[in-house]
């Protein structure tokens, strides 16, 4: 019984640590990984897919080895050591608390009509060009980022922590970071970043779909309808260029009763995104509701993945 709960205890500890501490301002392992990846890119970059595959595989392989060594070191110290290693890896991989705090800051500056402050804050949420956005555009960009990153920064890491422990959750976070760095369709990264983008799509498949389910279940927390969240997900998610972000954004749109999508300006290109949902254009109050919805989804995701980790360990023990 205790062994079955070791990974669950570690995941719970990681969630509590993220809620209490959020992301450290300096020395975050994810930032250190990003610096290392950028340094390697200066040596490995070439404008072709094969170079990108080698770059991505090398970095993620190194993270997998480091994660395996960390997990083994924890196990050598017994159940508490194993739980501590899982907790540390989970804390490193999670970003839900920082996401919601940044969302709350965006609500505050938008309510104060501080567009300069909102434009300065937006890069902490997404990679869009804030200079071309008015208050409505900033609100929509922030809300869509809250939706997508509820999945990417919280639900998916918890899924991988539950299913694969330390190596899996660290590889997931590294893959997601690498996708943010090189996985976009700019002229420089269209080919070199292809492998990072496709791998990130694969590792987010389960988390995005769990996010959609949890958003529907949590919709009443913000006065929304589970049926509306599920309907918009089913109808509109496939229109989105991402097989995963579309689910998170569409389910949020349905739960909040708003309409997302439309022109989306990045530094490298203007995308015309499809419409998700059929409600009103999101207002600042809707952004505040999105943050509350994200927090509710994060809590339910933690409870779900802790339960799954216990079930997986019990199942392993019963195998001959």
Q: Separation of termini? A: 17 Å
Report the β-strand fraction as a percent range.
under 5%
Radius of gyration based on Cα positions: 19 Å
Extract low-pLDDT stretches.
Answer: none
Number of domains: 1
| Main pleated sheet | 2 strands, antiparallel
Number of strands: 2
Class computed from helices, strands and strand pairing = mainly alpha
Q: Which of globular, elongated, flat, extended, rod-shaped describes the shape?
A: globular
Average pLDDT rating: 93
**Strand arrangement, major sheet:** 1-2
Please give the share of residues in helix: over 70%
Walk me through the structure:
It is built from 12 helices and 2 strands, in the order αααααααααααββα. By secondary structure, it is mostly helical. The chain has one domain (3-318). A two-stranded antiparallel sheet has the order 1-2. A hairpin with a 4-residue loop joins β1 and β2. α1 packs across α4, α5 (96-111) runs antiparallel to α12 and α9 (205-218) runs antiparallel to α10. The chain starts with 5 loop residues before the first helix and ends with a helix. The model has no long low-confidence stretch (mean pLDDT 93).
């Amino acid at each position: 019984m205790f062994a079955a709960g070791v990974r669950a205890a570690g995941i719970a500890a990681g969630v509590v640590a993220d809620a209490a501490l959020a992301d450290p301002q300096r020395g975050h392992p994810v930032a250190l990984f990003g610096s290392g990846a950028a340094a390697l890119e200066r040596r490995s970059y070439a404008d072709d897919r094969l170079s990108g595959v080698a770059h991505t595989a090398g970095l993620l392989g190194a993270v997998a080895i480091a994660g395996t060594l960390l997990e083994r070191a924890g196990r050598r110290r017994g159940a508490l050591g194993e739980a501590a290693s899982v907790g540390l890896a989970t804390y490193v991989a999670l970003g839900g608390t920082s996401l919601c705090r940044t969302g709350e800051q965006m609500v505050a500056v938008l309510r104060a009509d501080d567009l300069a402050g909102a434009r300065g804050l937006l890069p902490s949420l997404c990679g869009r060009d804030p200079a071309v956005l008015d208050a409505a555009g900033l609100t929509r960009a922030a809300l869509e980022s809250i939706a997508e990153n509820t999945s990417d920064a919280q639900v998916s890491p918890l899924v991988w922590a539950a299913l694969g422990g330390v190596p899996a959750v660290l590889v997931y976070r590294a893959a997601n970071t690498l996708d943010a760095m090189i996985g976009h369709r700019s002229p420089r990264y269209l080919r070199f970043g292809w492998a990072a983008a496709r791998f990130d799509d694969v590792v987010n498949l389960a988390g995005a779909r769990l996010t959609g389910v949890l958003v529907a279940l949590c919709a009443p927390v913000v006065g929304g309808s589970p049926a509306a969240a599920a309907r918009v997900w089913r109808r509109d998610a496939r229109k989105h260029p991402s097989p995963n972000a579309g689910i998170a954004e569409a389910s949020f749109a349905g739960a909040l009763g708003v309409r997302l999508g439309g022109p989306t300006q990045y530094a490298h290109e203007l995308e015309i995104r499809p419409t998700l949902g059929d409600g009103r254009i999101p207002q600042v109050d809707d952004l505040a509701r999105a943050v509350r919805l994200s927090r509710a989804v994060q809590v339910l995701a933690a409870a779900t993945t802790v339960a799954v980790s216990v079930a997986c360990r019990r199942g392993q023990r019963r195998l001959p």
